[in-house]
Amino acid sequence: MWSGDQLRPRLEGRIVTLEPIELRHVNGLRAAAADERAWTWMTTRDTETWIRRALEATDMYHFVVVMDGTVVGSTSYLNVVSEHLRLEIGNTWNTPTAWGTGANTDAKYLLLLHAFESLGARRVEFKTDAKNDRARAALAAIPADFEGIHRKHMLVRDGERRASAWYAVIDDDWPDVKAALERRISAAR
Asked: What is the model's pTM?
């Protein structure tokens, strides 16, 4: 079984640092979330509700994405099933000024690296709104394998039904995925 401490390390990359969410991050998160475009595809669009839930979560492991000393967003480990060596990376958002900078690529790399090489995960899943073309392109670019659409998968944003596109990287894929992400991160910096 993976412990909470194992699922909440501080991870330093070439572009971003992932820090386990703490109260000291709240003002930075509020500033990063000020542009509503960051929230278009989130399950809630209420920043304060999201922050409160992230700080109180016991079944999700939220990280703050820090770039050049500034909070630019958040990402998480969730749906952790350690007995099956499986977890999900998601609940990810970044302020639009971080889009296209490599911040999301580096954050995904750090979480995947930790999952496969420190935790010994065999499968890492990703889910996004099937209509979210930007996220789907980013997941395909990892490259994560597209595994299908789950129709009416969940309720979001005040009761809207969401179809979710599922992607995954398995341990067999990891060496090639790792190399691809490292090339992308090098090109971004």
From this structure: 0.94
Q: What is the mean pLDDT of residues 97-108?
A: 96
In a domain, residue 5? The reply is: no
What share of the chain has pLDDT > 90, as a percent? Answer: 79
Residue whose token pair is 């060496």: 175
CA distance 126 to 111: 12
Order across the sheet with 123-129: list the strands: 11-12, 17-20, 61-67, 70-81, 86-94, 123-129, 160-170, 145-156
Which amino acid is it at 183? R
* Contact criterion met (CB below 8 Å) for 61 and 78: yes
Domain range for 140: 11-188
CATH number of residue 20's parent domain: 3.40.630.30
